[in-house]
Amino acid sequence: MKAIVVTDRAAGLAGMTLTDRAEPTAAINDVIVEIHASGFVPTEMGWPSTWTDRRDIDRTPSVPGHELAGVVSALGYGTTGLSIGQRVFGLADWHRDGTLAESIAMEARNLAPLPGDVAFTVGASLPISGLTAWQGLFQLGRLEAGQTVLAHGAAGAVGTMVTQLAREAGAYVIGTGRAADRQKALDFGAHDFVDLDHDRLEHVGGVDLVFDVIGGDIQKRSAALIRPGGTLVSIVGPVEARPADGRAIDFVVEADRAQLTEIVQRVRDGRLRPNIGTVAPLDDAIAALNPTARRTGKTIIKVR
Ligand SMILES: NC(=O)c1ccc[n+]([C@@H]2O[C@H](COP(=O)([O-])OP(=O)(O)OC[C@H]3O[C@@H](n4cnc5c(N)ncnc54)[C@H](OP(=O)(O)O)[C@@H]3O)[C@@H](O)[C@H]2O)c1
Asked: pLDDT band at 285, cuts 50/70/90?
């Protein structure tokens, strides 16, 4: 099969090559998925799991990409819950070969059914950004209607999901980002927007939940805005600042079939809009994943 692989950590995204790989085989509880569309997070080359396995042993050449939509083509020993020919989407294991390939072997529990009226490109855009937003807001952030959310990077892949889900849940959403992203953030449902380069973040006043996708100084200044009992949720590594009277949580997203099903249902009925930028075939994936211009949404690789 065709796959993108990386071998050289120092080369980053530029080190990707398109090559021929052996077809994957299904282990216990695995399925093989014929990938139709693949999603990619631009920071993947910085994740240890791209380079080493769970024992920290080199696993290169490795196939990056962890989001996919496709069709189940084989079942491993003991696999239940999915069937051959079923449309699926989901989040592939960080430490196994990923989704920038024609096929993947992955655990069935990391996939959910993809309804027939949702395009594969849309399905592949949802798992990481949708699940991260869901888990950060509802599971860890314990968001309640009437609360105020400060959604950093609100025009980005995760930020657009945070904004939409928080607003649907009855929160007042203040998005942040670059000046050029103001309209996009408002279009995705932010009630207000802070241009981090020109506006004073401190002018937003008190908030109940900060969803941080940036870190550093922005995180420290945001922690100071959190009301008593509020929460700082970070997805960019260990928290560097804690609210004076609240909780601080950092986490890495996990696959969850029930949550994926909730997310895709919202896409079907129009409550959640995907944020897709460039769509490119696998043969052009390396150029698409090494853009010269600023990305305007998630890059999706159309494999079939
Ligand atoms: N822990 C987890 O489970 C998890 C899950 C998903 C993502 N992540 C991480 O979360 C981060 C965001 O992911 P993403 O996919 O949403 O990325 P993305 O699509 O690039 O969105 C990030 C947004 O934040 C903006 N931004 C970043 N720094 C900024 C700054 N200093 N001032 C103003 N705007 C700024 C970006 O603008 P520019 O493009 O102009 O910088 C972009 O619009 C990444 O570091 C990713 O690795 C973690």
From this structure: very high
Q: Which atom of ligand 1 is nearest to the CA of 41?
A: 15
Instruction: Please give the backbone phi and psi of residue 11, each rounded to the nearest 5 degrees, phi first.
Output: -75, -15
**∠ CA 25-66-287, rounded to 5°:** 105
pLDDT at res. 99: 98
CA of residue 41 to ligand 1 center, whole Å: 9
User: Could you count the other beta carbons within 10 Å of the beta carbon of residue 266?
Assistant: 19
Q: Find, among 120, 103, 108, the residue nearest to 255 by Cα.
A: 108
Closest CA to 152 of 82, 235, 69, 41: 235
Partner residues linked to 206 by β-bridges = none
Q: Calculate the alpha carbon distances from 106 to 43, 82, 127, 256 in Å.
A: 22, 12, 14, 14
Task: Quote the ligand 1 centre to 43 CA distance (angstroms).
Answer: 9
